[in-house]
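agent: user wants the structure for GTP cyclohydrolase I from Prochlorococcus marinus. delegating to structure tool.
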Amino acid sequence: MTSTLPNDNIRNFDDQITNKLISEIIRDRIKNSGKRFSANDNISDFINPGELEILEKEVASRVKDLLKSLVIDVENDHNTQETAERVSKMYLNEVFKGRYHEQPKVTSFPNDKNLDEIYTVGPISVRSACSHHLVPILGECWIGIKPGNKVIGLSKFARVADWVFSRPHIQEEAVMILADEIEKLCEPKGLGIIVKAQHYCMKWRGVKEPNTSMINSVVRGDFRHDLSLKQEFFELVKQQSATNNY
Ligand SMILES: Nc1nc2c(ncn2[C@@H]2O[C@H](COP(=O)(O)OP(=O)(O)OP(=O)(O)O)[C@@H](O)[C@H]2O)c(=O)[nH]1
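agent: tool returned. relaying tokens verbatim.
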């Protein structure tokens, strides 16, 4: 598709040669490498320095078109004059930052004392959006670890969870993706994750159920094979949910 957008800023140097939008250039790179670019995939490896700013302008232009199609007077309505730019910035750098930005830096340390007791971290805030309607999924998650040879700082579980959840998701897949990332980072002997969240596509619209939540979990390694360890994980999380403040 040739660019029909009014703002030349949304093109970069490559685009001047190929006459492609920056989103098309990025999409082509991903396709050429045979990778996926589903809503819950991170595509930061395919975005060069400076291109996110150009993409932000392209998305803003599209959001402006959406507002116009919704017959909102973006020229004269003082409340919506910069809405397109705000929404674009919010998607790319805030609520969906886990698609466009690299994983936060996580340092791992050797498990020098060979700790092999399990520990749990939580509640960690879950802020996501459903892939179907792009409305919020809000909740909490708990992570349980039986360490292997590596440990990571406690805060890093929250940072990685925030990065993973900040994408459009379905909850079932979000939990699996978070488990994959944590396994890569600290190679635990056992891993458990529980997520409890409310879906605004069920709360704000659709069936409009105000209090329904979804709880799901994933258990891997020793947590999967050893029933008593799995029970200990669920028991620790139950205690953690009951005692939030000290
Ligand atoms: N399994 C699962 N379903 C989800 C999740 N988030 C949202 N949904 C549901 O996915 C469905 C979206 O697909 P459709 O049924 O085609 O959407 P819809 O016709 O707008 O459905 P309604 O919400 O019933 O109005 C809805 O039922 C949502 O409640 C999730 O994380 N997991």
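agent: one observation worth passing along. The chain is about 45% helix and 20% strand.
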